[in-house]
Amino acid sequence: MEWSGMSSGFSLHNLRAGALGLGGRVVAIQFLLAALFGLWPGVAVNAQPAGAGADETISRLGPRVLEFSRRKTVRGKPEAKIDVVVFALPALSETQRIKLEDLGIDAARAVRGGSPLAATPGVLRALSRLDFVVHIDDRHLTKMDSTIASYLAALDGGRPGGNPAALEVEVTLHPDLTAAQRQTLASFGLDPQAIAYDRVVGAVATQRLEQLAAQECVLGISLPSEEEQQQAPRLPARIDSPADVAKLHQRGWTGKGVKVAVIDGDFDPKDPRLAGGGGVLYAETVGAVRGESAAGKAHGTAVAAILRAVAPEAQLILLSVGSAPGGNVYRAIDRALALEADVINVSLGKAIPEESFLRGDGPLAQALGRKLAKRGTSLVVAAGNYNRSLAYLPDGGRFDGRRLLLGPQRQTQIRFFWPRRLPDNQVFVAWDDEYAPVARRASDLTLEVREARSDKVVGFSNDNQLGSKPPKEVLRLARPGSANFGKPGFIPVTGGGEYFAIAVGSAMPPQTMRGRALRVGVSQAAVLESPSNAASISAAPYALAAQSLMVGALEAKGGKFAIVPHSGRGPQLDGVPRPDVLARDAGALLRGTSAAAPFVSGVVAMLKSLQPDLKPPEIRELLKRTAGRGEAGGIDPVAAIGAVVSANGNTQFLTAVDH
Predict the structure, then answer these.
(1) CB 488, CB 163: distance < 8 Å
(2) Which of 270, 290, 317, 597 is most buried, judged by most C-beta within 10 A?
(3) Could you name the active-site residues (predicted)?
(4) How far, rounded to the nearest angstrom, does the alpha carbon of residue 351 sit from its chain's CA centroid?
């Protein structure tokens, strides 16, 4: 996409190609251009379609709209039209408003949240030359994420081979559905009974996705988000309780009578390590779990076995959600509450949250918090193992011209390591922004990934975040050997090295960035070299609820405990520090926060057994108050139990247990 007023050989892509190397000189050029022409070059970049050259000129048009704009007019035949939504920069001049209106666009709507237009190819070409036009979206694809939009665009282009007959999608819905709307959803293959927290997951025929998006009750359609599951080694024949916990068992504190739900990929309910004591009260599959792998089954079984070792007489409820559960986790939480679980354990990390707000006032976090508070259930969640793959930029970086300069030294990029043995990766940027059900968001960032050695563009994205779209950008990368290589929506990465650079830019003027912080991350445990030395967490909304207890991991080193380097830690985007507590992992059995969470859940079960009316916030504060001292101060089960027993009048407790 060429800049208006520049020669035909000068494109934004060419400027960006030199930006990583030129640094401040590019910024100076941008300020000069702005001064000379009065332009903010609002160019939108769509996720690169599979098979497209990485160096082709960046376009503000989606793949379907771009293809349509190239159609030629045939004399004697009426021009075809495509339904689009046009977004413009704020604070348009009178001349700019007139230009839009001459093309049939409501300028006021284009600024506020997008103006609909039935556009001919000629009109699209004219709009694409206007720098104050930021996005031109296909109206039928505006509710879909870029990957699904790319699938449908590829189908239009006669490339159905890479598109399945049906896609498993996660659909976000209006909170108040009528009976007729529920029936309509069922006609698309979505189970109305499976709706949880205004979300439902199901397989929908690819050819009917646009019809689904056109329904008034549908707010968004995306691929189900994946949860990290650490592979577990072969389980030992017996899992012994830690020495300090064993002393509590000898005194009779074993979690007896407490129901603990474990939500994970899959389990072996007949595993002997889960038998005895309270036993497995109930086991159920939530949603469609298709052929879960042996590794996934070992992970869930190991998590449940650790919990059993800490609270041997707790009653286990095992809820399987698969390796890419998306909305199934929310359904499982609801199911656990219906089964009257006192404690719920979720040892699934989140690489890229489905909501990027990462704050407790989002709609899902609040809805979950209300349900948990009503039942008095403690939700214990692993903090994830992504500490080494996230950069948290507390001040939101600094805008300078059109580029976002990250960090105190004002660098323009960060770097990450992507080992060749890992075939898939996801790169994302998310930023803090206030939540509003009908948001009028004006911040809109772009994301670019380059091969560090050659400086070649690997992929670029500028999905539309204006209006009410989630404030995040995601690039899905696939190497040869990946099942996703060559599929629409996945950027093919061939050759090159293992080090890559991430650059973040803006498709809007800098003053529109209202958020306080940015997170840039990768999903495949890659190490970021970042100008910021601050870490961050990446968590699902259920981990942010006021009733949840987020757990980081400790490991034994030289007779002492230290924080596991990759254990998630750092502030939410609203500044709240997480995790809430730290706990030991299970060493060779299961490493990281997946193992630390069930240890805490077992201790919570013992506390609930001793004093059933303990509220989740009280339990959190009790565990924090009685934890060990210092940076690596993990929870102390004996001290926590002792505080409850002593408060009930038994002052001899600590001596009796020989703490």
Answers:
(1) yes
(2) 597
(3) 264 (charge relay system), 299 (charge relay system), 594 (charge relay system)
(4) 6
Contacts for 366 with CB less than 8 Å, ≥ 6 apart = 360, 545
pLDDT tens digits, one per residue of 491-537: 899 877 888 888 887 767 656 655 556 777 887 756 666 655 556 67
CB 427, CB 447: distance < 8 Å: yes
Residue 383 carries which DSSP code? -
Active site residues: 264, 299, 594
Q: What is the mean pLDDT of residues 166-174?
A: 86
Query: What amino acid is encoded at 628 in this protein?
Result: G
Which is higher by pLDDT, 67 or 332?
332
Tokens standing for residue 172: 């976000």
Residue 264: phi and psi, rounded to 5, are -155, 180
CA distance linking residue 536 with residue 430, whole number of Å: 12
Q: Please tell me the distance from the alpha carbon of residue 509 to that of residue 615, in angstroms, as a whole number.
A: 47
The lowest-confidence range among 96-110, 143-157, 266-280 is: 143-157
Residue 288 has pLDDT above 70, yes or no: no
Q: Could you tell me the pLDDT band of residue 394, with boundaries at 50, 70 and 90? A: low
> How do 82-88 and 115-119 pair as beta strands?
antiparallel
What are the b/e assignments for 76-102, b being 16+ CB within 10 Å?
eeeeeebebbbbbbeebeeebbebbee
Q: Between residues 233 and 547, which one has the greater pLDDT?
A: 547
Does residue 338 contact residue 257 with C-beta atoms inside 8 Å? no
Say how far apart CA 167 and CA 626 lie, in whole Å. 49
Q: What is the pLDDT of residues 296-306, one digit of tens each?
A: 577 888 889 88
How far apart (Å, rounded) are the C-alpha atoms in residues 46 and 140?
A: 16
**292 pLDDT exceeds 60?**
no
Task: Report the alpha-carbon distance of residue 252 to residue 249 in Å, rounded.
Answer: 5
Cα dihedral 541/197/607/349 (nearest 10): -40
Identity at 206, one-letter amino acid code: T
Residues 6+ apart with CB under 8 A from 186: 192
Predicted confidence (pLDDT) at residue 595 exceeds the cutoff of 60: yes
Domains of the chain: 12-141 (no CATH), 146-224 (3.30.70), 238-386+539-657 (3.40.50.200), 387-529 (2.60.120.380)
User: 8: exposed, middle or buried (C-beta count within 10 Å: 0-12, 13-18, 19+)?
Assistant: exposed
Q: DSSP class of residue 341?
A: -
- Of 556, 539, 62, whose CA–CA distance to 347 is shortest? 539
At which residue do the structure tokens 């052929």 appear? 291
567 close to 553: Cβ distance less than 8 angstroms: yes
Encoding tokens for residue 331? 């359904």
DSSP 79: P
Instruction: Give residues with Cβ within 8 angstroms of 220, minimum separation 6.
Output: 143, 144, 145, 171, 172
The helix or strand, by DSSP H or E, that contains position 605, with its residue range, turns out to be helix 593-610
pLDDT at 238 (0 to 100) = 47
What count of residues does the chain have?
659
Structure-model confidence comparison of residues 190 and 524, the more confident one: 190
One-letter amino acid of 33: L
Residue 92: which region, alpha, beta or left (left: phi > 0; alpha: psi -120 to 50)? beta
Q: What is the Cα–Cα distance from 131 to 101, expressed in whole angstroms?
A: 15
Distances (CA, A) of 555 to 177, 384, 545, 559, 638: 48, 15, 27, 10, 19
